[in-house]
Amino acid sequence: MFGNMRLLHWVIAPVWLLAAGSALAGTAITLTCSSNLTVMATSSNGATVFFTCSASGGCSPPPTIEATPPSGSWFPVGTTTVMTTAKDSCGASAHCSFTVTVITPSIALYCSSNLTVSATGSNGATVFFTCSASGGCDPPPYIVANPPSGSFFPIGTTTVTTTAGDACGSVTNCSFDVTVIARPIALYCSSNLTVSATSSNGATVFFTCSASGGCDPPPYIIANPPSGSFFPIGTTTVTTTAGDACGTLTNCSFDVTVIHPPPGLRARLDWPYPLLAVSWMEGWWQTGALNSPPVFGLEVMSPQSLGGKHNWSVFTNGFVRRINDTFLVKDSLAGGALYRLNNAATNPVFIPSAVTWGANQITKDGATLTGTATPVADNTLYWFEYGPDTNYGLASLTNSLTTATNPASLSAAIGGLALLTPYHFQLVVSDADGIQYGGDQYFTTHGLPPEVVTLDATYQTLCIDCAPTILLNGTVNGEGTYFAAYFQYGLDTNYGVNTTQFYGPANYAAQPVSATLTNSNLIPNTTYHYRLVAFNQSSEGEGTDKTFVTPSGR
To answer: CA within 20 to 30 Å of 235's CA: 13, 84, 174, 424, which one?
Structure first.
């Protein structure tokens, strides 16, 4: 019997234990997970994320909670599922899950607005700008601009591409344009000029043109023909160009008209009183009252005694008044009284005239001086005085004249002059009655031709994805005068294409000259010939031939 009871005990015990465990379990476990989380990455890989889960019910003490990965873990960029379990001492458990999503923060990039600046040199300008960025990971985003602020921008429009990035790997871009323009030049030409010829061929004419604006230094001016040139009879158009170191050019023009002077007749008057010696121009008469001043622009000369008469052996150009077909002259010492040239008391003596014309065939050290004379005797001599001022100091060879050619066109070649130097000169005619002076003229000698050097071409890359552009280089020494220069280039030494002209200052230093060739006008992978050409007021100079090879296209 007792053996059977022992068996019953062992059979009942487990049931009781199960019942006891169920009784001890109490209420069920309630587990509350965090909601799904989205956070910003704090580095390029992810972020540390904290979260809270809670549980209640179950046996005493309260249930424990385990999360995988736990709160405070490093979560990579992307979405991670967190598995959470709550357990109590009675062995009961509950489960839930949620997601943690780590995203990279966005970057706000602010580019500069489009910029337009004036060139400060012949090729462009150094330009500064500001771009900014915010947001992104910590530390703040970095900014890279191409080309960067403070770069040298060529004349024209260049696009600046700007990139901002952060430690989280976020990247954003923006762009803007920098346009470099050459400042305009205001060029003021002379008005149209009309002058009387000072020789049988024309006249030396001086004029003034001015310019302002442009790059620093102020613009230079080149006139063709230049001021002080000899202009032939008729109308000549003067074309004037102003340029600056930025390569800006502007032009204007005006006309110089040289007209024939009226025919002239000169006379010396022998008179009981000291008379003013005059010349008159046929056809240039004026009318008026007898006591009106008849002579304009004449000098009062000192008389010389000759045979008991007062004689004027030197006189100047001027006009007399014609009244009732009578030519009148003015007595210089008798209270301004007028005397008729055809008065019986007068004895007009015609003497040789002398007129100084211009200089031609001007070189760096010489010129040909010209004039005309009207000899009245075969013993007439002439020569030219010349020098750096109206004291002259130098003279050409003396030559003789006869009355066979009347009037006589005269010339004399002179040499040994200094470069780029103004010289005064005048014709002198002499006979037994005295010396006649033709009046002062002047010219400026030319300088040396420009010294031109062609340098090697260089390559410029203006943007990351652009093919290099070709920069032709050289130097020009204008030898003390303004110069114009340009490059010739082509597939052989015939060239065929000229770049825009560059104008340089008047000094004796080698000035750098460059020109940019765009790839759109060139054949890729091709050899080109080029040289630098320059000219000043004297002549033209050419640099040696060089070559460059265009890059392959992109």
So the answer is: 424
